[in-house]
Amino acid sequence: MMANSLIDETLERINREYRTGTLVRMKRFHSTEWRKLLILEEEINRCALEENMVPLSGVLIEYERLLGLMNKMSTGFPRIG
């Protein structure tokens, strides 16, 4: 599987559960997790550019887990669509 396909699949799964405003609240009230998210995004970019699939898989799992956790903690608006 190519890096772009793996990233697209992960983002599709994240999108299914995403609640409006999660990232805004995460940045404002959970600065440690926000910084970790940015670090994970840098790592995703690095691994994708290098086509380094094994580390990319692990980083995407952690990225999805962190956003899922923030989503569950979110008191955001109901999902649209």
Describe the fold and architecture.
This protein has 81 residues and is an all-alpha fold. It starts with a helix and ends in an 8-residue tail after the last helix. Helix 1 runs parallel beside helix 4. It has one domain. Helices cover 79% and strands 0% of the residues. The radius of gyration is 13 Å and the shape is globular. The chain is built from four helices and no strands.
Mean pLDDT: 89
Give the H and E element order.
Answer: HHHH
- Beta percentage is under 5%
First-to-last CA distance:
29 Å
Main sheet properties:
none
- Low-pLDDT residue intervals, each spanning 5 or more residues: none
Globular, elongated, flat, extended or rod-shaped: what is the shape? Answer: globular
Helical fraction: over 70%
Tell me the domain tally. 1
State the secondary-structure class: mainly alpha
What is the oligomer described by this structure?
A: single chain
